[in-house]
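I am writing to request your help with a piece of structural work I have in hand. Thank you for your consideration; the sequence and its tokens are set out here:
=====
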Amino acid sequence: MENLALIDSFSEFKDDKLIDRVTLMAILEDVFRNALKKKYGSDDNFDIIINPDKGDLEIWRNRVVVADGEVEDPNEEISLSEARKIEDDFEVGEDVSEEVKLIDLGRRSILALRQNLISKIHEHDNTNIYKQFKELEGEIYTAEVHHIRHRAVILLDDEGNEIILPKDKQIPSDFFRKGDNVRGIIESVELKGNKPSIIMSRANPVFLEKLFEQEIPEVFDGLITVKKVVRIPGEKAKVAVDSYDDRIDPVGACVGMKGSRIHGIVRELGNENIDVINYTNNLNLFITRALSPARVTAINIDEENKRAEVILKPEEVSKAIGRGGHNIRLAGQLTGYEIDVLREGAEEDVELREFSDEIEEWIIEEFHKIGLDTAKSVLEHDIDDLVKRTDLEQETIQEVINILKEEFEE
């Protein structure tokens, strides 16, 4: 009866950890065999009988009877006189089975045995958690804010599993308080030591794709396909959608009347500006659509070098570039082409890149960000306007204007 307290605790593990009976018995046997190895040097000649439901545990040591004075291995052999203390009719060569009580292992061994059991149970739990979340990679998951750190938010789900939302996986405008529910995708799951590391992301393009699946019935049902998603988290995104049913307008279905369907997605992403684009295999048309809201006048494509030269009216250029260059950058990522913007009727103009010997590249890039990529486009603006719209000093802008003016004076 001295083993009942220990056995009772096995049932606690079974109830708390939801371990099935077969797995629990395997873990228990493994733990006991490790204890027997430490005590007797080997566990090969031991039988362990466990019934965790009833709290039964029996350990039997099997030894061979040898003549007195001929015992070489006390663990596997027993002298005739010792065997006859168990049953008086044993003879040399017969097998003796003797029950080993837990108390025989010693108090220290029993404490170590329990600690080993706890460790094995946790290891089993962690393996199951790893497998569970590995299958959820790329799927939307919701968890509650438990702790806010400088570089990450620690979340807990309903089962108490810890999920990490790193700072660089958050949308810049994200602001969380303890107890808030947070949605994101399970981006990666790794075993670090024996503990699973579960990483959530709200910045990954897949999160936006999965939100379309959740919020738009036609996407969920497979009537509309999300072909590609590109985004600058919290700023702007472009989503190419397609439908194999000509009766369905994929863009209209995704956006909804007055944006009603996409509004919830925009709000979830911190008011990220989302352009929904009708996908097409016609490359010219796809690039044209990708540059929306700008209207393209003409387009020249170099398929070999994956470059596209688009010609726009002067008033459309800033729309094509977008704030901070976001629109043209995302259009390039969506189509897989590097896009160069040219002004209509600018044949006599000169691209700013032509002045790279006299003007530093980072200065040219500052003008490019606001849609000014030719000499005349810069000269059309006054200095004060250019100072406001760029991160350049007035003196730097004046030097650039002097260089550009010299070109046309010549």
